[in-house]
């Protein structure tokens, strides 16, 4: 009783659907004479002829058409039977035509034409309707629930290649919840689901793009951090070099101070030598200008005092010349030391300026790296990624600026 009541409800629902949408039942009304075996046999012989080679084909086709005629009153529940038998009949016709005329395109086309003509003349099934039933059979062969709930027109909409199983499942649940859902409602719901999936696909593509952008930013940050670490090591090495140069400069200052003290001693010795030479010159001049004695006595050599003073004067002049040469040499050495000291002091001052500039750039980059990490966490935790695009562009510009400053500092090194 329950099964009869369900069948009656299904038939009533099918008839109500036909009133609102005639395409839902493609076959149309079923007459008692339309499914008669004799009529089907006659039509088959008219199309395929009375030849013995078609006897088995006609017998199988008649059985299939009789079964189809009996099942047409149960379109929704017997879609498997209708679509399957139509497809089986078409395959049978094609196999016989291929066996008779060979596997050629013309044979296949003729078989299809004869098959659709036979379906229309025998049962009133138009070619479009037959194709639709066969397509629905192929698409929903394993989905008995969809065949039970949807009519043929709705199944035809859902049998399209672009319709997914998930979309069919959603529309099936909606149809089960609302039995008054029409074919147009199914079409609209399918269009809505497809638009939602396209929107989801676009969002996923945007998400993939943002993830790729974040990965690129992370890579750039890692590269920048490695470069910053290398720069820090270089700065440490430069600071060590500067410290060594400062120590060397201190040693040079000590040496310079000692040399200056030695120069003062040399100048004092020179002054003393000048005084002694002046005294000796006075003594020599006094000897030269001294009047001779009254007693004249021939001597073969110069007076002892005169010779001693001349030798002493020559010796002192030689020592004076040596001291002057030493003084000139020491002064030249002091000038070279002063020039080297100024050069080293200038190099240390320039290195300190570069060190300070690089330290400032490194400190600024560390602040930027912290901001970039916070921005990455915020973007990854956000649902709407489009709103963070200006932030990402700003961070990218800041990163380019930081890298430019670091490269400038490297060139200055």
From TrEMBL:
Superkingdom, taxonomy of origin: Bacteria
Keywords linked to the UniProt accession: Coiled coil
Coiled coil: 183-354
Protein's recorded name: Chromosome partition protein Smc
Name of the coding gene: smc_3
């Amino acid at each position: 009783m329950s099964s009869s009541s369900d069948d009656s409800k299904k038939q009533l629902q099918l008839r109500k659907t036909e009133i609102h949408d005639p395409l839902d039942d493609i076959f149309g009304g079923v007459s008692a004479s339309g499914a008669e075996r004799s009529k089907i046999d006659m039509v088959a012989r008219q199309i395929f002829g009375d030849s013995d080679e078609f006897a088995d084909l006609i017998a199988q086709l008649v059985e299939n058409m009789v079964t189809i005629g009996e099942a047409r009153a149960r379109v929704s529940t017997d879609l498997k039977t209708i679509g399957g038998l139509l497809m089986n009949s078409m395959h049978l016709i094609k196999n016989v035509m291929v066996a008779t005329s060979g596997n050629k395109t013309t044979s296949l086309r003729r078989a299809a034409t004869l098959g659709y003509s036979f379906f229309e003349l025998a049962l009133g099934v138009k070619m479009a309707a037959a194709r639709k039933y066969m397509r629905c059979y192929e698409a929903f062969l394993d989905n008995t629930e969809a065949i039970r709930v949807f009519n043929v027109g709705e199944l035809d909409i859902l049998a399209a290649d672009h319709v997914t199983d998930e979309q069919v499942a959603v529309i099936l649940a909606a149809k089960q919840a609302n039995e008054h859902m029409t074919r147009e409602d199914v079409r609209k719901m399918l269009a809505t689901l497809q638009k939602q999936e396209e929107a989801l696909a676009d969002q996923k593509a945007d998400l993939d793009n943002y993830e790729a952008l974040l990965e690129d930013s992370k890579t750039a940050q890692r590269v920048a951090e490695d470069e910053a670490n290398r720069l820090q090591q270089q700065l440490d090495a430069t600071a060590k070099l500067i410290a060594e140069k400062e120590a060397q400069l201190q040693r040079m200052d000590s040496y310079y101070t000692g040399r200056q003290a030695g120069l003062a001693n040399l100048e004092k010795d020179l002054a003393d030598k000048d005084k002694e030479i002046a005294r000796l010159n006075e003594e020599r001049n006094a000897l030269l200008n001294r009047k001779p004695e009254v007693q004249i006595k021939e001597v073969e050599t110069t007076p002892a005092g005169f010779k001693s003073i001349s030798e002493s004067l020559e010796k002192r002049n030689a020592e004076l010349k040596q001291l002057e040469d030493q003084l000139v040499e020491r002064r030249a050495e002091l000038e070279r030391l002063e020039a080297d000291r100024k050069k080293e002091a200038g190099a240390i001052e320039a290195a300190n300026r570069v060190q300070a500039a690089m330290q400032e750039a490194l400190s600024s980059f560390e602040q930027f790296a912290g901001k970039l990490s916070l921005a990455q966490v915020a973007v990854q935790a956000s649902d709407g990624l489009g709103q963070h695009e200006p932030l990402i562009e700003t961070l990218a510009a800041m990163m380019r600026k930081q890298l430019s400053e670091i490269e400038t500092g490297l060139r200055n090194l």
